[in-house]
Amino acid sequence: MGKKITVRSAKGAIKLEKSDKYVALKTKTHSFSEKEKSIEKKARQNLGGFEVVELKKKGDGLDKELDKLRKKNTVNVGSHIYHVEGSDKPIVPTGEIFIVFHEGTNEEEQLIVLDEYHLELVERRNENRVIAKVTPLSSNPLKVAAAMESYPLVKLAEPDLDIPLDEYAFFEPEDHLYEHQWHLQNPGFVVDFNRRLKKGADSKVVDAWKRLDSFGSENIKLGIIDNGFDLSHPDFEGKIVDPYDLWNRSSHVLQGDPVFTHGTPCASVAIAGLNGSGIVGSAPKARFVPISGTSFDWRATEEMFKYCTDNNLDIVSCSWGSTDPRFDLNSIKKDAISKAAKEGRNGKGLVICYAAGNEGLDYINFYAAHPDVIAVGACTSQDEHATYSNQGRELDIVAPSNGDWPITAARAWWDEGVGSEFGNFKYWRDGQNRSPQHKHFGGTSSACPLVAGICALVLSANPDLTAKQVKEVLCRTADKIGDPSEYDDQGHSKKFGYGRVNADRAVAEAIRMRDGVETTPTNEMTVEDMIKMGRGIFRFNVQSQKPEGFGVQIGAFAKYGNVLIQVEKLQKKFSLPIIVSINELNGITVYKIVVGAFVEKRDADELKKQMKEAGVAGFVRNFKDLLV
Description:
23% of the residues lie in helices and 25% in strands. It has helices spanning 62-70, 107-116, 141-148, 205-212, 263-271, 298-310, 331-343, 444-461, 467-477, 503-515, 527-533, 560-574, 601-613; strands spanning 4-9, 12-27, 39-47, 50-55, 75-84, 92-101, 119-124, 129-134, 154-162, 166-167, 189-190, 193-196, 221-226, 244-245, 287-292, 315-318, 320-321, 351-355, 374-379, 397-400, 407-410, 438-441, 550-557, 578-585, 588-598, 619-622. By secondary structure, it is α+β, with helices and mostly antiparallel strands. The two termini are 47 Å apart.
């Protein structure tokens, strides 16, 4: 490794090391000739708009060789490649820098700062936030950003970095793979292999088709953002509309690169058509929009979601992301996702599904953790948690995938498979060659498009639902699997989210909401029962509370329905005033629930003991602190 440099990321400062053998080139032809004498080999076709190549000269000779390449007529930009210490994942600076100036800094002062570092203003986001890019007179964008951090007028200078994103699928031959689409309707066994499954451990898609009396609507446009789409595959015949490649910014989608095969099986799980052969997706009538070219840089993030909204997509599925804590999403990426989730579908919102990830972590893919997306984890053919599936409080739902027995998905014609020394084992877990155009598949990569297809069925039943409502319907109608102790008072589990997706119940709920069918609550029903039905009438006795005195806070909640549930339980158990404080936290409304209102702190301390004995955890809270 070469020289080290510290840069700012969404998670704070990270230390990068300059690669001593790889460089990034942005060429006029989008592809650098392998005949170039200084190049050992191509390493990656697209990363931040660059081509990553390995140079023949390593170490100290790398800088001089890169300078020579920069002078060639075919090269627009040449850049060093970086790595995080202890990782071989390549990182390339795109040349843009996100700059936040201190409040009170005027536009003229900001332009002086940009001029001092020889930066070109690209875009102004608001009065204090700008995006600038380096020019031929600028230093390395990482050095510029690091230097700007100490400038008195600059609050933040974050260089845009692109990294290869993880594709969430399992390809290892030791995985238990499965056959014949049990994830749609699980019969309890594999039809051509001696393997017992758990009957009914499935997504209830077949039941949803029966309820709809169709396979969904042809008016639904479902996008898959990924790499490696075999657009000639029979399962996609007659379904493809508005294809787009983010790397070459055209409708000519990259195909045939053995490094990229992931998009084909992912897409098939969601939208494989009814053609009498192959497999069937969970939404076989939906139209397929392949969007090729994943990227971590903010321009690509904005571009991919803008393409979805501009082309009126209803749903998009993303089986990729990052769980490296040094590369969380910055505000630009978060805003791009929020904008699409709220403004897509003519204001109803683009339904965005993200895979939780396969690292077996206790937190999920940073993209999936975004509050405006549907975060999808995986469960198995035994209705158990798939051990590889990341878990956490942001997880919304799980869907059947491998971990016990895999599913069947489409295979790109150039997919080389794994373990070729075992013959067909490279595509099929048990070695049986069921189809030359299909293979076993799994991971949260499979679970995510399965849920995306179910969202298409939900919108087929009720196209007026907002993206937020679709997410709520899925969570509200999910089946609780696993040990009941896994779920908290709000019905959420870190392993299973709100449960295993149930397409039939979700479609039924969408139809009920479409038809305006009212369900009359009975006196015996709890507030929780009513909220689960999406209906209820509640009596309020609202009084303002002065910021004086003490109580016992039991928690903070983001969903108002959960507030009602907790207030009802606490009132019944303690017969004391319940105070609810409403605040904004990072753009999200948060409700803090406090039991009791006492002048003296010792009375709140006594209540805390009583609550603990009753099995309710809490802490003493001074009301004046609730305003913070």
